[in-house]
Amino acid sequence: MNDALLDQVARTVDRQRLIDTAVALVEVPSPTRSAGPAADRLAEILSADGFSVQRHDADWPQAPIVMTALDSGRPGPTLQFDGHLDTVHLPYVPPRVENDTLYGSSSADMKGGIAAALEALRVLRTLDALPAGRVLFTAHDHHEGPWGDGRQVRAMIREGLVGDAVMLPEYLASPLPVAGRGLAIFRATIHRDGEPVHEVLRPPGTPDVVAAGAQLVNRLHSWNEELKENSHPLVGHGSTFVGNMQAGEIYNQSPTECLVQGTRRWAPPSGSAAVQDEFSQHLAEVAAETDTTIDVEFAVQGGAYQIDSDGRLVHAFQQAHTAIAGAPLPLGAKPFVDDGNIYASEAGIPALTHGPAATGAHTLNEATPVEELVRVAKVYALTAIKFCVEA
To answer: Least CB-packed of 163, 264, 277, 287 within 10 Å?
Structure first.
């Protein structure tokens, strides 16, 4: 990496502007499915900076996506910076900056990262540094499950509002994830015919939905042990997990429904459809054995994927990271599921998740060091310069 270029990027990142942007975004509460005002705030920031902003409903007109692009004017690939503006449904914590750390709801997950990616875009424009191609900047709602279902990212893919590769500034600073497990959140409801009844007044042969629920939980537990036998070299093995089971209104009533909720995670190369079919087969067998019916919601949050560790995006990122940190990142797996899973597994778009070393995601204590936001802005700008070369 050219030392002069590295120095130019480092000097052009405006630390206070980056902080102000992050604070302005965190100031707007944006629980999933209600991120419209935060999207409006981001659009206002971009417009005030002189960027041309487009808004697209993307299957959720309550919060149209925010999109802008920096075009070099020369043919070449498009690198997308993409982030979600929505947050989990926890009490809102307003922003504050103390001891060079940004606190507040979404400071870690992930408005701090979005602000860093936007700062990278500003740097690239100021320096006119893109050799070719363009950088596409997008932000959206409908990320956090179970409230969101990823519809806006899927709509962006369907409508062609995507790049040739995508970077997502989520709160993962190491390793560099080139693979990830898929995730579905399931909600299985076990039913029997009839009405709730006192335990001693049950007609003979009345199906027991609580026992059926216990049988389902045990089956999923046994299946989880079987899944451990097949391990992917990067992401490990698949899993089934039950975190919630509910039934009945009182201790001695035979209920008509039992709810079992949990997750199913799987490793590449398994596809979401095949995983869902196998899951449904387990439920069908339990239903047949217990004389009940089982309805299931199987909400796929993102599929399993693996990208080419020798591809253009990984090489560009590693050059940028080495220039900033002195060494490339070790390759590894993504511990969580984010929108990169959708881009990679459903659209075949190489996706890298890399953001600030932040803490407290999905809690009331989110915190992101400002220096990490500055670092991410530099890495994103340099990655774009290395990725967007003439075709």
So the answer is: 277
Spatial CA neighbour of 194 closest among 122, 120, 254, 142: 254
**18 and 144 share a domain?**
yes
* CATH number for 7: 3.40.630.10
Interval 7-26 mean pLDDT: 98
State how far the Cα of 77 lies from the Cα of 133, in Å rounded to an integer: 5
> Are 124 and 48 within one domain?
yes
Question: What is the amino acid identity at position 226?
Answer: E
> Do 308 and 173 fall within a single domain?
yes
Domain-terminating residue out of 280, 302, 324: 302
Q: Which domain holds residue 223?
A: 182-302
255 and 355 belong to one structural domain = no
Q: Which residues contact 110 (CB under 8 A, 6 or more apart)?
A: 83, 84, 169, 170, 171, 355
What is the pLDDT at residue 390? Answer: 81
Looking at the structure, do residues 293 and 309 belong to the same domain, yes or no?
no
Q: Could you tell me the sign of the dihedral formed by the alpha carbons of 385, 304, 86, 242, in that order?
A: negative
Q: Does residue 280 share a domain with residue 346?
A: no
Rounded mean pLDDT, 271-300: 97
Distance CA 273, CA 88 (A): 27
Residue 193 has pLDDT above 90, yes or no: yes
Mean pLDDT of the chain, nearest integer: 97
